[in-house]
Amino acid sequence: MALVCLLATAAATMRVDSINSLNAAIHAGPVSAVGFLSQGNYDAIASILPKTMDNGGPLAVRIFDNLESLEAAVMSGEVLAGLSTSRPENEDGHLVEFPASLITMRAPMFRENADGNALLDSQKLREALDAATIRAIHQGEYERLETQYFASNQFDSVAAFTCGINPDNFPFPAAADATGLLSRVLNTSTLLVGALGPSDWGYQGNYLEADPPGFWPEYMNAILARFTQAYPGVSIARVFNGTSDGVMDDLKEGRTDVTEIYWTVSGYYQGRARSENFDLGCTVLGTESIFFTNSGSANASALPSWAIGVIAAAAVLVALLLCFVYVMMQAERQGKPIFRRLDDAPKGVTMTHSGNQA
After folding, report:
1. How far is it, in rounded angstroms, from Cα 97 to Cα 15?
2. Does the predicted model carry a pTM greater than 0.70?
3. Which of 73, 187, 238, 312 could form a disulfide with 78 if both were Cys (CB 3.0 to 4.6 A apart)?
4. Nearest residue to 104 (alpha-carbon basis) of 126, 80, 84
């Protein structure tokens, strides 16, 4: 019986270390929830996961405010897996990490001037921020930050740029010719940036601090430094919102000038692609999101398939042995034992022996 229990335990704790094994575990249950840091992060990789419960599938999507609470939920078993835009810290091996095998593009987004409102026209501002972005990348800021945070936190991104990295092709609009939102930014000396949170995303950005440290705010500061070379005196003022759609609402209604540069290009807004509702700036990088599971519950030391096969065969043999013992016991009770001693031969039967006798 112990072997049978061991076999059941081995089957129930198979290692979750790939998209296929994650999807199988979601379908199998009992825990079918996966955690994300934003709805946009889920939207970006939804195509590789089962359908959500709202759509008749098994997947439950959970949104968390920060990476620490998401990791805690994975460790406690509240969610089967979590997803981060880069590898979480895992020096003690408490997590099993595996890539989503999908590149997510990141870029700032701007208000689309579909209503013809000249005061909120973002064309010139987009040109100016694209020019600043290209110069920051061209002058090595992306490479510096990617190298720095890969060394310290295993942050691994992809140089996925939709704009050619040639500053000559991206001139700054002259301040004297500024219109729309660029004019507002220059007149107020403030760039209103729509941001999700405020939240602490660890090394990717702690937006709970007045001067946020981390990869994304440092990348934004590098872009702003090139922007202020062309337009001196401008500083950032972040306008936080608790949801992705809320950030996009602020942008659409003119309460902000641009989103943060970490914005997910493949996300949605009010059921439609963001790219159909907003103008897209030059992408700043691509990320391959990372899933992570509890190495304990995911059984990082799960038995290999050959060992499970041996256990299964042993379990079958034990079951057959138990059946045989049961049959033998029943025969004994009926006075018809399966095995008899030689001197217990029935009466009338003469036992003969061959061979020499002393």
Report:
1. 11
2. no
3. 73
4. 84
Structure tokens at 140: 């090595």
Over residues 294-341, the pLDDT tens digits come to 988 444 334 444 444 555 567 667 777 776 666 677 766 777 776 665
What is the Cβ-side half-sphere exposure of residue 8, based on CA atoms within 13 angstroms?
Answer: 5
pLDDT digits (tens, 9 = 90+) for 203-238: 999 999 999 999 999 999 999 999 999 999 999 999
Distance (Å, whole) CA 156 – CA 85: 9
How many angstroms separate the CA atoms of 52 and 62, rounded? 11
Phi, psi of 245, deg, nearest 5: -65, -35
H, E, C per residue of the chain = CHHHHHHHHHHHCCCCCCHHHHHHHHHHCCCCEEEECCHHHHHHHHHHCCCEHHHCCCEEEEECCCHHHHHHHHHHCCCCEEEECCCCCCCCCCEEEEEEEEEEEECCEEECCCCCCHHHCCHHHHHHHHHHHHHHHHCCHHHHHHHHHHHHHCCCEECCCCCCCCHHHCCCCCHHHCCHHHHHHHHHCEEEEEEECCCECHHHCECCCCCCCCHHHHHHHHHHHHHHHHCCCCEEEEEEECCHHHHHHHHHCCCCCEECCCCECCCEECCEEHHHCEEECCCCEEEEEEEEEECCCCCCCCCCHHHHHHHHHHHHHHHHHHHHHHHHHHHHHCCCCCCCCHHHCCCCCCCCCCCCCC
Residue 252 near residue 113 (C-beta atoms within 8 A): no
Identity of the residue numbered 296: G
Distance CA 21, CA 18 (A): 5
